[in-house]
Automatic annotation (TrEMBL):
Pathway annotation: Protein modification; protein ubiquitination
Species name: Trapa incisa
RING-type domain mapped to chain residues: 323-372
Renumbered ranges of ANK repeats: 50-82, 83-115, 117-138, 182-214, 225-257
UniProtKB keywords: ANK repeat, Metal-binding, Repeat, Transferase, Ubl conjugation pathway, Zinc, Zinc-finger
Protein name (Swiss-Prot/TrEMBL): RING-type E3 ubiquitin transferase
Domain of life: Eukaryota
Keyword S-adenosyl-L-methionine annotated: no
Catalysed reaction, written as an equation: S-ubiquitinyl-[E2 ubiquitin-conjugating enzyme]-L-cysteine + [acceptor protein]-L-lysine = [E2 ubiquitin-conjugating enzyme]-L-cysteine + N(6)-ubiquitinyl-[acceptor protein]-L-lysine
Alphabetical list of Gene3D superfamilies matching this protein: Ankyrin repeat-containing domain
Length: 510
C-alpha cells in the first residue's frame, strides 16, 4: 500500500483520477464536481512520476473555484509533488493571487520549502515579481494598526517598541528573511531579476539588506558566496533596485568571498549604467514613499472570513442591506472610519488588489470605493454570525444531519413500507460545493436468533400487517416443513425466504 501511495496510482481509480486531473487543469468545474460526487476519494489521486495532484494542476492554472472545491472535499492543502512543492508554491510561481487568497484562507503553510533548493512560496513570488502574492502571503504577520509604518521604521531592540511590537516584528522578519539553499533570501531573488515593486515591498516590511549568501556546495553561485542583495542587484543591472537598496542602508563597499564589491560585480557583468550609482559617495539617503502594495486591513478581513465564511452569503430578494459593490450578497462587515458596509467577499477582493489611498494618508490604507476614505481595518456587523465550531470539514464533503444517532427501535411492519424522515433536520456547512444527501431514518427490526440457526419458529414481526391469520398459519406450516427437510442451515434459510417472497408477491403487501 505504501508503494502505491508513492507511485501515485491506485487500483480502480486511475482512469477517473486522470479525468479529474484533466478537469482541474482545464478549469472544467462541472466535470470536477461530477467526478467527486461519484468518488470523493479521487481528491487523493496524484499522477505517475511527478506526483502532481488535481490541486497542483488547478493552482498552477489559476482555477480558484476548483481549488475551493478540492479543499472542501478534504484534500490535503499542503500536499507535495516529487519536487516538494505545494499548491501554494505553484500558485505564487505563476502569480495567481486568487488561488493564493483561497489557500491562505484555508490556512496553507507558507513556511514549507521545496526539496531542490529550499525555496518557499515567498521565494517563488519574489523571483517572478508577484507583489500581490507577497502581500497575501504576509497577511497574517502584518496587524491592522495605523502605527505599523512607524513601528517598522524603529529598531526592534530599542526602548521605543513595546514587547508585543518586538514579537510580531521578529516573527515577520523570520518569514521575510528566511534563507533558501545557499543563504539566498526573497530580497536577493527580487533584486537579481529587477522587480522594483517587490523589492520596495520587502524592504518596507523589514527585509534585511545585509543578509549574505553562503557556499553550501549545492547551489551554483556565479556571483560568489558572501554576496548581499546589492551584489545581486548589480548583477541584474536594474538601477531602481540598486537605488532602493542603497536608500535602505546597503553598503557600497561590502565584499563577498571573491573580494568583489557591487561595483566590481556590475563591471564584470557589463552593467555600465550602474557605475555612477555604485560610486556615488554615501550621503543622506533619499526619502522614499511607502510601497503601495502594503495592505493594513487585510489581516482583519481574513480573520473575519475564516470565522464567518466568505461565500454562500446571498441576500434575500427583499433584503434592504445588499452590498453596493456586487449587489448580490448581504453586507457583513463595515470599514472603520467611514462605516461603509460591504460583504466579506468584496472586502477581501478590495484588500487584495487595491493600492494605497493617497500619499497623505496612513501608509497601507485602502481607499474606500464609495468615499475614498482610507480604510485601516474592518469590523463585523452585529448580524454577522460565525460558522459553528462543531461543523467539521470531512473528506466526503457530505451534508451533516442533526438527528441523533441513537434512535428508538421500530418494528418493520412490511418490507414495502417507506420510512418516515419528516422529523430529520439537515444543517449544511459553509462552502458552496458541499453536497446534500437525502437523510432518512432507517428503521430497525429484531430478528429471532434461533431463526438464523434453522429453528422451526418464525418471527411474527416479519409478517406483513395486512396478511390475515390463515396466511400466517400457512406460512408457519410451510416454513416448518421446509426447514425440517433442509439439509443445511443455508438451504433452510433460502427456502424460508423464497416462500415468504412468493407469498408477499402474490397476495401480500401494504
Amino acid at each position: 500500500m505504501r508503494l502505491l501511495n508513492l507511485v501515485g496510482n491506485s487500483f480502480g481509480c486511475s482512469a477517473s483520477g486522470e479525468r479529474l486531473v484533466s478537469a482541474a487543469r482545464d478549469g472544467d468545474l462541472q466535470e470536477a464536481k461530477a467526478l467527486l460526487e461519484y468518488n470523493p476519494r479521487l481528491v487523493r489521486y496524484s499522477t505517475f512520476g511527478v506526483r502532481n495532484s488535481p490541486l497542483h494542476y488547478s493552482a498552477a492554472q489559476g482555477h480558484h473555484e476548483i481549488v475551493s472545491l478540492l479543499l472542501e472535499s478534504g484534500v490535503d492543502i499542503n500536499l507535495r509533488n516529487y519536487r516538494g512543492q505545494t499548491a501554494l508554491m505553484q500558485a505564487c510561481q505563476h502569480g495567481h493571487w486568487e488561488v493564493v487568497q483561497t489557500l491562505i484562507l484555508f490556512r496553507a503553510n507558507i513556511h514549507r520549502a521545496d526539496y531542490l533548493n529550499g525555496g518557499t512560496a515567498l521565494h517563488l513570488a519574489a523571483l517572478n515579481g508577484h507583489s500581490w502574492c507577497i502581500r497575501l502571503l504576509l497577511a497574517d504577520n502584518i496587524p491592522s494598526n495605523p502605527n505599523v509604518w512607524n513601528i517598522l521604521r524603529k529598531q526592534p531592540n530599542s526602548n521605543k517598541c513595546s514587547r508585543s511590537e518586538i514579537e510580531w516584528i521578529n516573527a515577520l522578519s523570520q518569514v521575510i528573511n528566511k534563507p533558501a539553499d545557499g543563504g539566498i533570501t526573497a530580497l536577493h531573488m527580487a533584486a537579481l531579476n529587477g522587480h522594483v515593486e517587490s523589492v520596495q515591498l520587502l524592504l518596507d516590511l523589514g527585509a534585511s539588506v545585509s543578509k549574505v549568501t553562503v557556499e553550501d556546495g549545492t547551489a551554483i553561485d556565479l556571483i560568489g558566496a558572501g554576496s548581499t542583495p546589492l551584489h545581486y542587484a548589480a548583477c541584474g543591472g536594474n538601477a531602481e533596485c540598486c537605488q532602493l537598496l542603497i536608500a535602505n542602508g546597503a553598503s557600497l563597499s561590502a565584499e563577498n568571498c571573491k573580494r568583489l564589491t557591487p561595483l566590481m560585480v556590475a563591471r564584470s557583468w557589463n552593467r555600465d549604467l550602474l557605475e555612477e550609482i555604485l560610486t556615488r559617495p554615501p550621503g543622506e539617503p533619499p526619502r522614499t514613499l511607502p510601497s503601495p502594495h502594503i495592505s493594513l486591513p487585510l489581516m482583519s478581513i481574513i480573520k473575519i472570513a475564516r470565522e464567518c465564511g466568505w461565500r454562500n452569503m446571498d441576500a434575500h430578494p427583499t433584503c434592504q442591506d445588499t452590498c453596493v459593490v456586487c449587489l448580490e450578497s448581504k453586507c457583513s462587515v463595515a470599514a472603520e472610519g467611514c462605516n461603509h458596509e460591504f460583504c466579506t467577499r468584496c472586502a477581501l477582493y478590495l484588500c487584495s488588489m487595491s493600492t494605497a489611498a493617497s500619499p497623505h494618508s496612513h501608509p497601507g490604507c485602502i481607499p474606500c470605493p464609495l468615499c475614498r476614505h482610507g480604510i485601516i481595518s474592518f469590523t463585523k456587523l452585529p448580524g454577522t454570525r460565525p460558522i459553528p465550531k462543531d461543523i467539521a470539514r470531512t473528506s466526503l464533503s457530505i451534508t451533516f444531519c442533526t438527528c441523533s444517532g441513537e434512535t428508538t427501535e421500530s418494528t418493520l411492519k412490511t418490507p414495502l413500507c417507506k420510512p418516515d424522515g419528516s422529523n430529520c433536520a439537515r444543517m449544511t456547512p459553509a462552502g458552496s460545493s458541499f453536497r446534500s444527501l437525502t437523510c432518512q431514518r432507517f428503521p430497525s427490526m429484531r430478528l429471532n436468533p434461533s431463526l438464523c440457526m434453522g429453528a422451526p419458529e418464525t418471527n411474527s414481526s416479519l409478517v406483513p400487517c395486512t396478511v390475515d391469520r390463515n396466511l400466517r398459519a400457512y406460512l408457519a406450516r410451510c416454513s416448518r416443513s421446509t426447514l425440517r427437510r433442509a439439509a443445511s442451515h443455508s438451504e433452510s434459510r433460502k427456502s424460508w425466504f423464497s416462500t415468504l417472497n412468493q407469498c408477499v408477491a402474490t397476495g401480500g403487501g401494504c
